From TrEMBL:
Originating organism: Arthrobacter zhangbolii
Domain HotDog ACOT-type: 4-114
Name listed for the protein in its UniProt record: Acyl-CoA thioesterase
Protein family: Belongs to the acyl coenzyme A hydrolase family.
This protein's record includes keyword Hydrolase: yes
Length: 144
């Protein structure tokens, strides 16, 4: 059953390097794409360039895609927490609209300059670009 109220943004064209041994779309490629898509969504909703994936619920690979298919990815926020944002995701075939993957719950956490969870201060979805981060925290240096 397709998820409700999802806006589909990014499109992908399934290429030979995205295939598994069965000749269909490799789940790892799909997860990398959806995690990146969710990162962009989380940045735009929480207004901060430093956000990380905290949790992903069951991932349902509903149907497959093959080389040359056009697919599109959609996300919607389902819960604004204090420091977190929970989203739902769906990937579907652009032409047939058949669902390829659904994820009920993806949680991102908003971090401060020290890499600690920080309140983002938002409670509703923005459909504009009014929360674009105006600066980037430098990466935290690795210490052994
Ligand atoms: C993100 C991280 C800083 C959070 O640390 P933490 O000690 O769990 O922080 P907190 O307990 O304060 O939780 C932060 C938020 O995450 C939520 N959260 C924590 N664990 C969760 C879980 N298993 N499922 C859903 N939400 C969770 C909390 O509810 C809280 O949200 P809220 O403030 O909106 O209520 C830490 O877990 C981390 O660095 N994880 C690795 C992240 C990463 O590298 N991701 C890349 C993928 S490899």
């Amino acid at each position: 059953m397709p998820l409700q109220n999802i806006n589909f943004h990014t499109r992908k064209w399934v290429r030979p390097e995205d295939l598994n041994a069965n000749g269909t779309l490799f789940g790892g490629s799909l997860l990398r794409w959806i995690d990146e898509e969710a990162t962009v969504y989380a940045i735009l909703q929480m207004g901060n360039g430093r956000v990380v994936t905290k949790f992903m619920s069951e991932i349902n690979f509903v149907s497959s895609a093959v080389q040359g298919d056009l697919i599109e990815m959609g996300l919607t926020a389902t819960k604004f927490g204090r420091t977190s944002l929970t989203m739902q995701a769906e990937v579907r075939n652009m032409i047939t609209r058949d669902s390829i993957l659904t994820i009920d719950k993806i949680v991102f956490v908003n971090l401060d300059e020290h890499g600690k969870p920080a309140p983002h201060g938002y409670t509703t979805i923005s459909y504009d670009r009014d929360r674009l981060p105006t600066h980037h925290f430098p990466p935290i240096p690795f210490t052994a």
